[in-house]
Design brief:
heterodimer; A: 74 residues; mainly alpha; two-stranded antiparallel ribbon; B: 230 residues
Chain lengths: 74, 230
């Protein structure tokens, strides 16, 4: 989060700008897949970090090969 | 073995590495994004590698008229199908490309190639060889058109997003442009059937794949920082 804010569920939902019902689905899915942990605060797991790294590479691949515009997957 | 057979084995090894890397990463990207045009892209490169295997087979065993023309006949059809799949990946990048539609294209390509091979073997050899020789430049002309479309679409994406031009961003357009240029040599070869031109056309094909692979390796080599991916 920006400005050193602690990531809370509400703050994340506002940042990603997704309707609450859909956000909840994604949230539960991420938890079920072990990408995030929600204890005293929301944290990315090692697996979540690896997923994000992979996502970044795939995004770059799609951009470099002209399949998407830079802003499409942001 | 025909002329330059050894050189074609080297070409085949190099293209297998390049195309293999592109295939592997396309599949990886598809698994994550489920973007169906990536299947078309994958199939395009798979067919491209298959088509060049037939050039190698030609160099290794194409001593008779039927084998010589037959292998080039299959090569030409596979290569056109390959570039058609690649171009379709770009055409469908913002459109719906269902799995049913992809399956239909694959089945149609298999039927067309199978019928063409049967027709080639069924008619008199003289007529078959003449038809193959006459049709050859037109396949490469079609390939040139399909690749030009891919080059146009690759260039259209970064420009419309006003992305800064980096050397890495130029690798993919350069790769497709070299592949398109190689088709001009293939057209010339289609008219002349000269071995030297065949080698040059293949060398340019390998040279075209190199920047595509380099772009991919640069992406894989780079480890994004945690702050960047957040």
């Amino acid at each position: 989060m920006q400005n050193g804010e602690k990531p809370t569920i509400t703050r994340i939902q506002i940042t990603v700008n997704v309707p609450f019902v859909r956000f909840k689905e994604y949230w539960d899915d991420m938890k079920a897949r072990g990408l995030i942990t929600v204890e005293s605060e929301v944290r990315l797991t090692k697996q979540g970090e690896r997923y994000l790294e992979e996502y970044q590479k795939v995004k770059e691949f799609l951009e470099e090969f002209g399949f998407i515009k830079t802003e499409d997957m942001d | 073995m025909l002329a330059y057979a050894d050189l074609f084995i080297v070409f085949q090894v190099m293209t297998a590495f390049s195309v293999g890397a592109i295939l592997w990463f396309s599949l990886r990207a598809y698994r994550m994004t489920q973007l169906s045009f990536l299947i078309a892209f994958f199939l395009g490169f798979l067919l491209l590698e298959s088509s060049f295997t037939f050039v190698l087979i030609n160099r290794l065993v194409g001593n008779t008229g039927t084998l010589y023309h037959g292998t080039f006949w299959v090569h030409e059809m596979l290569q056109t199908a390959a570039f058609a799949f690649m171009a379709s990946a770009y055409y469908f990048r913002n459109k719906e490309l269902t799995h049913t539609r992809i399956t239909t294209y694959v089945i149609a390509a298999i039927i067309i190639i199978a019928v063409s091979v049967i027709a080639f073997l069924s008619i008199s050899p003289k007529l078959a060889f003449d038809l193959r020789t006459i049709s050859s430049p037109y396949f490469y002309l079609a390939n040139l058109a399909l690749l030009s479309y891919a080059v146009y679409r690759v260039n259209a994406a970064p420009l419309s997003s006003q992305k800064l031009i980096k050397s890495k961003s130029l690798l993919v357009p350069a790769g497709f442009m070299i592949l398109a240029l190689s088709q001009i040599l293939w057209i010339y070869w289609g008219f002349t059937d000269l071995n030297d031109i065949l080698v040059l056309a293949n060398a340019l094909y390998v040279a075209g794949l190199a920047p595509l692979t380099a772009a991919l390796l640069l992406i894989l080599r780079r480890r994004p920082t945690f702050a960047e991916v957040r």
